[in-house]
């Protein structure tokens, strides 16, 4: 169910944000837009299947702890 | 959208909301117990010092955004590297607030709703507001403050009956070292976050003094944070404030005047929603500006939808649970040092040198 909600949200954005924008935007803008949308979609779909990607907070906390010896 | 400006009033309202976004619900760290209000004053004083640095950067390069300033001062390559760093900060801050917001809604109102659904609902509002343009965003900030301040005042007045000022005693029982350390924590979260306003520096008119904008807003929001903290301490006592994740919410929850006025905690939730949405919205705008500057794209509104989705994707994977979110504050205060202190100082010094060299060259040419 969650996967469907995520896909519907992306579909909605595709129709109402991407398509109107596509007509008067450069190729570069469309590529950057598409790549970042696909990346976030992948992470969200993985999340809906219960697969969590690595946590940046863990990395930041470990780095700060190592640097400052907390 | 690029030629729109914020008025001074709108900019001040925005900065107040930006800081209040976290303070209004969390209050202040309970580490100092009854002396926590001293840390608020300390945090405000540190924020005032650094706001002079941020304002000076805006003054040297009027009507120019942070990302434009970075490229002008440090050149293309180093400018782009710093743009990536500040864009990451905007995305990370946006994700952290979105996660905090979602956890708050989950634990106080919608415990069985999946977080992703709450985030998607927020996405619609944030994206619509961000895409409406700077002027609309500025008007939204003024309208939001018209609701936030009266709600804050009424919750404080309603809690007067339950206040016990003996909870604030003894004063200064934690020593200077610990008080200063918590004051710095208070600066890093939330006062120092105002560094991000530099991203919108281009929307402030040349005639409007950035010093006034920063100083007025910090003093006003500092006063509100101080009252929020004193209220929470006086009503709940230091022990309960320390144990509570959301002390302002807990304070409002126990307010009960006669038989007719109870359960006013929804007012606190309303304030958090308004302030939280505004804060996330600005993070989306700042990160979109950074992305556009990174790829030399003129109109940043193209990247608002991808940025919002990136923030959602990051916020879902940011923390394991609410406890980790609160524990991360220990590292967070050091993690933000480059964004809030080191880099702004470097940018300020480099901008001063660059602008003086430019002025000398101009004087020579005219002579």
Report on the structure:
The complex is a heterodimer of chains A (70) and B (367). Chain A has 70 residues and is an all-alpha fold. Chain A has one domain (2-68). Chain A is built from three helices and no strands. Chain A has helices spanning 2-23, 27-48, 56-68. In chain A, α1 packs antiparallel against α2 (27-48). Chain A is flat and about 55 Å long. The model of chain A has no long low-confidence stretch (mean pLDDT 89). Chain B has a single domain, classed as Amino acid/polyamine transporter I. In chain B, a hairpin with a 3-residue loop joins β1 and β2. In chain B, α4 packs antiparallel against α11 and α9 (247-254) packs antiparallel against α10 (265-294). Chain B has helices at 8-26, 36-60, 66-108, 115-131, 134-158, 175-188, 210-236, 238-243, 247-254, 265-294, 304-316, 322-327, 329-335, 337-366; strands spanning 256-257, 261-262. By secondary structure, chain B is mainly α. The longest helix of chain B is centred in the first third of the chain and has 43 residues, at 66-108. Chain B has 14 helices and two strands. Chain A binds chain B through residues 2, 5-6, 9-10, 13, 17-18, 21, 25-26, 28-29, 32-33, 36-37, 39-41, 43-44, 47-48, 52-57, 60-61, 64-65, 67-68, 70, and chain B through 92, 114, 116-117, 120, 123, 291, 295, 297, 302-303, 305-307, 309-310, 312-314, 316-320, 324, 328, 330-331, 334-335.
